[in-house]
Design goal:
Butyryl-CoA Dehydrogenase, subunit A, domain 3; Butyryl-CoA Dehydrogenase, subunit A, domain 2; 49% helix; Butyryl-Coa Dehydrogenase, subunit A, domain 1; 418 residues; 9-stranded mixed sheet; acyl-CoA dehydrogenase activity; flavin adenine dinucleotide binding; oxidoreductase activity, acting on paired donors, with incorporation or reduction of molecular oxygen, reduced flavin or flavoprotein as one donor, and incorporation of one atom of oxygen
Length: 418
């Protein structure tokens, strides 16, 4: 199949040339990561550095002023950034998903205005999850028509990752005027928006994942996007961001523990060498973790290749090819999650065998690698991923492209009965 107007697509760039623009910024980000972790400081300044460097526009086609990188190249960059500070990658997860959606929408509707915004540095935050005891499938956040005949949005969200740093909100809502699920693209600079940094997780503390309150925020029809028109491989895309984050955490952990081993002078009387750095068993611990980190990156990038194929299939006007490409993107991202999560959680635990009890000091924050990996791995339950993969392998059951979380109706019935 041929693709028309390839210059309007993002098919890849010179990776080293693009990465070279951002590596000095990544280095600056890495230098302050430990302090931010210890003090729970939001990375406001580092995200500004990335905005100024144009990082949010790397997937924008070069014809519109972006770098035109492929998804595989994007996720390679995200792995490098996650090695510097995994919180920042998660904070930008919603942005790159919204960009991806606009790239797909460009097939039928001109998206040059959004592309221009991304090139100018605008970032997009994420706000999908309802707060409180909202029944699964229900959406309390609503687009309504006020007394003056204008559209407005009202609602409350949690896990509004990255929104506190962003210019726009990718807001999931129910449009009462059309009775359909939509994405409302809302400016964070509008009045009636309150963003709180009240995420209390033990890991990924500085991602800006808190409560969002939207009260009587005006929105025009042009900024209300039907949810059923979202790009098909969105769930896989969101998951591969997590895979890249985990791969970066793994690399950072190996580097940090290797540095600790290299400079350690205290030894055990029943060890195997006069210096820890020469102890064969300690080297074995580091070596295994390094191999696990390598495998994590390799699997993440292999999953990203499946996303690139899904992106290309969208523009080839072949429904069967498109379905197959999207199925494989969802399958490979799920398989990658199952394996990478276990690899990274294992290595971030086992690395402590290379050091003594002093490695547990809060000053070094070496536990941050496991804590952050544990939180990232908890977003999409591994047991359900394993189940849907198995159901696909045995029964060719359709993979769930979109799923929801919420309060069980059965729980409500229990409360009434009690």
């Amino acid at each position: 199949m041929t693709i028309q107007n390839k210059q309007n697509l993002s098919l890849g760039a010179n990776y080293e040339q693009v990465a070279g623009k951002f590596r000095p910024v990544f280095q600056r980000i890495a230098e302050g990561a430990l302090q931010r972790e210890k003090n729970r400081e939001l990375p406001r300044e580092p995200i500004q550095w990335l905005k100024q460097a144009g990082f949010g526009a790397v997937r924008v086609p070069s014809a519109f002023g972006g770098d035109g990188v492929s998804q595989k190249q994007l996720f390679q960059l995200l792995i490098e950034l996650a090695k510097a500070d995994s919180n920042i990658v998660q904070a930008l997860r919603g942005h790159f998903a919204f960009v991806e959606d606009r790239l797909n929408a460009h097939k039928t509707e001109d998206q040059s205005l959004w592309f221009q915004r991304f090139v100018e540095g605008d970032l997009v935050g994420n706000a999908w999850t309802e707060i409180g005891k909202v029944e699964i499938g229900d959406v309390v956040t609503r687009v309504t028509e006020n007394a003056q005949g204008q559209l407005e949005v009202n609602g409350r969200k949690y896990y509004s990752t990255g929104t506190i740093f962003a210019d726009w909100i990718d807001l999931f809502a129910l449009d009462e005027t059309t009775n359909q699920h939509v994405i409302a693209a809302v400016s964070t600079h509008s009045s009636g928006i309150k963003i709180s940094d009240d995420w209390h997780g033990f890991g990924q503390k500085t991602t800006g994942s808190g409560t969002l309150v939207i009260e009587h925020v005006p929105v025009t029809r042009d900024y209300i996007l039907p949810f059923d028109q979202r790009f098909k491989y969105q769930t896989a895309f969101y998951q591969v961001v997590h895979l890249a984050t985990l791969a970066g955490i793994a690399q950072s952990a190996v580097t940090a523990f290797s540095n600790e081993v290299r400079k350690r002078t205290r030894i055990y009387s029943h060890g195997n060498a006069e210096l820890v750095r020469d102890d064969a068993q300690i080297l074995q611990v580091i070596g295994k973790a390094s191999a696990q980190a390598y495998a994590s990156e390799s699997i993440a990038l292999r999953s990203a290749e499946a996303l690139d194929r899904a992106y290309l299939s969208h523009f080839q006007n072949d429904a069967a090819l498109d379905q197959k490409a999207n199925d494989l993107a969802e399958l490979e991202s799920s398989q990658g999650q199952v394996v990478i999560s276990e690899l990274v959680l294992n290595l971030t635990t086992e690395l402590f065998n290379a050091l003594g009890a002093s490695a547990s000091t809060t000053e070094k924050q070496l536990d941050r690698f496991w804590r952050n990996a544990r939180v990232v791995s908890s977003h999409n339950p591994l047991i359900y991923k394993q189940k849907v993969i198995g159901d696909w392998e045995i029964n060719k059951a359709p993979l769930p492209y979109v799923w929801q979380i919420g309060n069980s109706p059965a729980a409500k019935q229990q409360e009434i009965a009690a």
